[in-house]
Design brief:
Oligomer: heterodimer
Number of strands of chain A: 14
Number of domains of chain A: 1
Largest sheet of chain A: 6 strands, mixed
Largest interface: A-B, 60 and 73 residues
Radius of gyration of chain A: 20 Å
Radius of gyration of chain B: 26 Å
Order of helices and strands of chain B: HEEEEEEEEEEEEEEEEEEEEEEEE
CATH class of chain A: Alpha Beta
CATH architecture of chain A: 2-Layer Sandwich
Strand order of the largest sheet of chain B: 3-2-1-24
Distance between the termini of chain B: 80 Å
Order of helices and strands of chain A: HHEEEEEHEHEEEEHHHEHEEEH
Number of helices of chain B: 1
Structural class of chain B: mainly beta
Helix content of chain B: under 10%
Distance between the termini of chain A: 55 Å
Shape of chain A: globular
Number of helices of chain A: 9
CATH topology of chain A: Nucleotidyltransferase, domain 5
Chain lengths: 312, 375
């Protein structure tokens, strides 16, 4: 009998092997925070943040990168930076989109657009930069590559989104599934409720040429797609993990450990009220264009009270 | 006595069986969220349980399908065909979308091309993608003489928006002229709908431009205009965030999709007097509704929405009784002569909740493609 039970367990292990492999490879990544330079301490608008005071609440920094063949694998920009605070007790989620062009003091030293922090020092540098400039504590991070988002959405069978407006772009980078990563393609994602596959969802969140709000408009679309992914994820079962992990191989990294992921799955399913999700964007007057090198400058006097209200 | 060898062999076989069975059992418990939709012509169960009036045309995976007498027929190959609408003589106007451009064609009701209306691909060997054009949402006027469409001209360098154009139905786009010039850096003007005395369409623009208390984000609004380059006027407010207008066969009501700037969509109906919309009535609020389309005989509204939870869009049918007002019953006449006392209150009508009917279950219709319906 023991042998039969063991063989059944072996069958189960074999089934979940891809998921386990991904879990070992991608989760529990050690965050190495860079030693702050003296100027970093001077530039910090607030004292060093401490962990969230609300019991069980945690803050995750979501990072999305172009990791196509135009870039070196370890030196990619973060096109998307979204700070997410989850309060399980009240089932409230707050998402703050950080403009990728925001001109800040970077934790590895010097000033530049915040999307460069990851390319200089990986996730640790991106986290440290956000912590020092926004005065928040970041518990964990999740990084996903361009192709990873496409594969993730396809692996969950696509997502249902109300695209807030048509997105047309004559010069959208043709760097996914292309032999010429520096060429362009046209995209047309029409407006309204619809089912999007990974590629079209990526086009919807990535295009910014036709948007007056440029990166801000894109941030709004990114949050719409994130919300749709969360909604679809509620329909997944643990048995879907192997196929998901097979699709994501190498395109996802996170500091969240396996055991924590298991704890968070049922938690994600319990968040079913869209009105409990607060979406924040740092539009003017919080930020202004015209910074160095096409960057966006911050009005920290306005930003920090807002951030500390939602990320205490 | 069974030998040890035989016992070991049996045990090994049972172990292999047990391990394999566990593997297969776990595999069978997946959520099936990623199962691809079936073609309407092969999906089971077929849409035969409910027979809708006339013929309904819709798009899935770049192919046009008709639904008639409870059966689907594939009209075109899967080659980018979408957004069908009817011509007065029973043909179909549709869009064929390629990766870099889209064109409008006239098809007969069996799906054969009768005429290519636009030619929007860039000149050969030109590598600038911006020289291509998009044409979407073709609609013919009631007299069949004018074709309305959303066309991406003029362009504003990097910014590409759709404007409403009008052109002779038997002519070319060169003979056409821009009707609503969508401003630079808006969401564009789409979904033209010729109505008596004008043109209804969906305008995507920043809400903050129309109301002081509105956010700085792009929303959909229904607009009405009656001449080229006229500003026209709003029929719905920015806060309602509406699109997909459809006028009822008798011309007295408009069905539309309103999202109230959220990731939700509501099937909303309003009365229509030819110039303004009346009070809104939300008919469906618990589905991600798209493309409401009135049956030509007024018997109900077809629309697209996911089957259960989040997933590909299916065809749904909402019978008229679900949204039409229930007539008040007349007081029962008093037997034996005129009634002198107080008029008895009529007994309340029995509240019958009419729910939408899911027509298909395993398909994945294009929710950005309007449905076309011939009577």
């Amino acid at each position: 009998m023991l042998a039969i039970v063991l063989s059944a367990v072996a069958g189960g292990l074999a089934y979940f092997m891809p998921a386990a492999q991904l879990a070992l490879d991608s989760t529990g990544q050690v965050i190495s925070l860079p030693t702050p330079s003296p100027t970093a301490l001077l530039a910090s608008p607030t004292p060093s943040p401490s962990p969230s005071p609300v019991t069980g609440a945690f803050t995750v920094l979501l990072l999305g990168s172009d990791d196509d063949s135009k870039f070196s694998a370890d030196h990619v920009l973060t096109q998307s930076m979204i700070l997410v605070r989850v309060v399980p007790a009240t089932k409230k989620v707050t998402m703050l989109s950080i403009p990728r062009d925001l001109y800040v003091h970077l934790s590895p030293g010097g000033y530049g657009k915040i999307d460069g922090a990851y390319s200089y020092g990986g996730a640790g540098a991106a986290i440290a930069t956000v912590e020092q400039d926004f005065g928040v504590h970041v518990d964990d991070y999740i990084w996903i590559g361009l192709l990873g988002l496409v594969k993730l959405i396809d692996a969950i069978g696509g997502i249902d989104v109300v695209t807030s407006h048509p997105v047309l772009d004559d010069y959208y980078p043709a760097d996914i599934y292309s032999r010429f990563p520096y060429s362009y393609q046209r995209v047309a994602v029409l407006g309204g409720p619809q089912h999007l596959d990974g590629l079209h969802a990526m086009q919807y969140v990535r295009s910014r040429h036709g948007d007056l709000q440029s990166d801000f408009g894109r941030s709004q679309r990114q949050q719409e797609v994130l919300t749709a992914i969360r909604l679809k994820a509620k329909e997944l079962s643990p048995e879907d993990l192997p196929s998901l992990s097979g699709a994501l191989g190498g395109e996802l990294k996170t500091s969240i450990g396996v055991s924590r992921v298991a704890q968070m799955l049922p938690l994600a399913a319990s968040f079913d009220n869209p009105n409990q999700i607060t979406q924040l964007f740092l539009l003017p007057p919080y930020t202004h264009g015209g910074g160095p090198g096409g960057s966006v400058t911050a009005d920290w006097g306005a930003i920090l009270p807002l951030v500390h209200q939602y990320f205490p | 006595m069974i030998s040890r060898f035989a016992l070991a062999a049996v045990l090994a076989a049972v172990m292999v069986l047990s391990g394999t069975a566990t593997f297969i059992a776990l595999g069978s418990r997946t959520s099936r969220v990623a199962v691809p939709p079936e073609k309407p012509t092969s999906a089971t169960p077929r849409a035969q349980a409910l027979t809708l009036p006339g013929t309904l045309y819709m798009s899935q995976d770049g192919a046009l399908y008709s639904l008639s007498v409870g059966r689907f027929h594939q009209l075109t190959p899967e080659a980018g065909w979408t957004q069908p609408s009817m011509t007065p003589d029973g043909n179909i106007v549709a869009v064929k979308q390629a990766p870099f451009y889209s064109d409008i064609y006239v098809l007969n009701r069996f799906g054969s091309v009768v005429r290519r209306v636009t030619n929007n691909s860039a000149p050969n060997k030109n590598s600038d993608p911006g020289l291509n054009h998009w044409a979407f949402y073709p609609r013919l006027s009631a007299d069949g003489k004018t074709m309305w469409l959303a066309y991406d001209k003029p362009k504003f360098q990097y910014d590409v928006v759709l404007s409403i154009w009008a052109m002779p139905a038997t002519g070319t786009i060169v003979q056409g002229r821009v009707w609503t010039n969508a401003a630079d850096y808006t969401g564009g003007d789409v979904q033209p709908l010729p109505v008596k005395g004008g043109l209804m369409y969906t305008k995507y623009d920043f809400a903050s431009r129309y109301a002081a208390n509105q956010p700085d984000r792009l929303v959909g609004m229904l607009w009405l205009t009656n001449r080229a380059f006229s500003v026209g006027r709003e029929l719905t407010s920015p806060s309602e965030d509406c699109r997909n207008p459809a006028v009822s066969p008798d011309g007295t009501q408009v069905a539309m999709i309103c999202t109230y700037q959220k990731q939700e969509s509501y099937l909303t109906i309003a009365s229509w007097n030819g110039s303004t919309l009346g009070p809104r009535k939300t008919i469906i609020s618990n589905q991600l509704v798209a493309q409401p389309t009135w049956a030509p005989d007024g018997s109900g509204i077809a629309y697209l929405a996911p089957g259960a939870g989040a997933g590909p869009f299916q065809l749904w049918w909402l019978p008229r009784a679900a949204y039409a007002p229930i007539p008040s019953p007349a007081p029962t006449p008093t037997p034996g002569g005129p009634h002198n006392g107080p008029v008895p209150a009529p007994s309340p009508a029995t509240a019958v909740v009419v729910r939408p009917v899911q027509v298909t279950t395993n398909n994945g219709f294009d929710a950005t493609s309007p449905l076309a319906w011939s009577g």
